Amino acid sequence: MSNDIKPKINDIYFNNLESKGQPPLATQGTFLGRTVVQTSPGEREANRANSKLELSELLSMHANVEIYNSILSFEKDPHSVQALLNRKIQVISQSQ
Q1: Which domain of life is it from (predicted)?
Q2: Closest by alpha carbon to 24, among 14, 35, 10, 37?
């Protein structure tokens, strides 16, 4: 048995949205037999700027991931780690 009861929305934000109604439809045209939406120059420029920003963020993230992977995949020499540990022990023993 389905529940057909829906709560009533009493939010000012939603009431304002309902009162404003739908925005005017964008101009539509046809290009090579397909329906396309024509955007304003300002909207087109904003979309282009957002696309450039997203692309630069993705490229930056990709470069950082490659740097991190190269650092993490670097094989540590166990002899150098042991040499550093011996040096630390030597410095501590000399200071006492």
Answers
A1: Bacteria
A2: 37
